[in-house]
Amino acid sequence: MSQAPKYKRILLKLSGEALMGDDSYGINRATIERIVQEVKSVVDLGVQVAVVIGGGNIFRGVAPAAAGMDRATADYMGMLATVMNALALQDAMRHAGIVSRVQSALTIQQVAEPYIRGKAIQYLEESKVVIFGAGTGNPFFTTDTAAALRGMEVGADIVLKATKVDGVYTDDPKKNPDAVRYHTLTFDEAIGRNLKVMDATAFALCRDQKMNLCVFSIFKQGALKRVVLGEDEGTLVHC
Ligand SMILES: Nc1ncnc2c1ncn2[C@@H]1O[C@H](COP(=O)(O)OP(=O)(O)OP(=O)(O)O)[C@@H](O)[C@H]1O
Ligand SMILES: O=c1ccn([C@@H]2O[C@H](COP(=O)(O)O)[C@@H](O)[C@H]2O)c(=O)[nH]1
């Protein structure tokens, strides 16, 4: 029996740091290939996939050099890091037989198409994966906010944050072993309890535009597909 996806179009926020795998910096080939297979599993269901990629795997590596720098300059470096990840992701997708397009919020015309909303939507309708690089194109923001923004712009049914933990917890589970995972919670609860899994701007944008969000682990095999099929996976954050 074929499985019917719950969502027709998704905005997938992929953690930059997740691309490192067990390395301390950069892109681990086997890890990116595994992540691409997870994406392929939902593309094969006929789901339209837009991706916003983070930059923590590269930007964390240059952070010491950025210390003491002008904040906006450091943020532009961070956005450029996400463009590198977008290109690596596109390359890995091509090897896996997925047709994708990279659009950058910063103009780097020799490297990537500029972000054009209508064109992105057209690609999605043609079943091409669209990878958004350079976040929002503005300093003082994050790729989480870019995910919320682009998700709304392309009319995604939900924003899926694929990260290193398997949901939203009462506290950072990497620091507090007693933290307990939420099954669901509201955006007001997430903001009011100052939960750091996503920045407050992104939470507020999703809340104000009534865009549901699911946080799940990209390292858990099959988790993305289970979320897309509407099965019990990760944490749903809703209005
Ligand atoms: N209440 C919480 N519940 C779950 N995770 C939390 C919480 N508070 C903090 N975290 C941390 O937030 C991290 C995920 O967000 P973060 O923005 O650091 O990474 P990302 O967006 O996945 O990566 P990148 O910035 O590289 O794209 C988790 O790895 C977890 O350690
Ligand atoms: O809209 C944006 C998105 C990102 N940045 C900068 O890039 C890095 C990496 O992004 P992550 O969301 O942390 O993965 C971020 O720390 C910012 O410095 C930005 O300025 N604007």
UniProtKB/TrEMBL annotation:
GO BP term, pick one: 'de novo' CTP biosynthetic process
Keyword Ion transport: no
UniProt binding sites for ATP: 13-16, 56, 60, 163, 169, 172
Pathway: Pyrimidine metabolism; CTP biosynthesis via de novo pathway; UDP from UMP (UMPK route): step 1/1
Gene3D superfamilies: Acetylglutamate kinase-like
GO cellular component: a single term: cytosol
Highest taxon of source: Bacteria
Protein keywords: ATP-binding, Cytoplasm, Kinase, Nucleotide-binding, Pyrimidine biosynthesis, Transferase
Family, per entry: Belongs to the UMP kinase family.
Function of the protein: Catalyzes the reversible phosphorylation of UMP to UDP.
Protein name: Uridylate kinase
Source species of the chain: Chitinilyticum piscinae
Recorded name of the encoding gene: pyrH
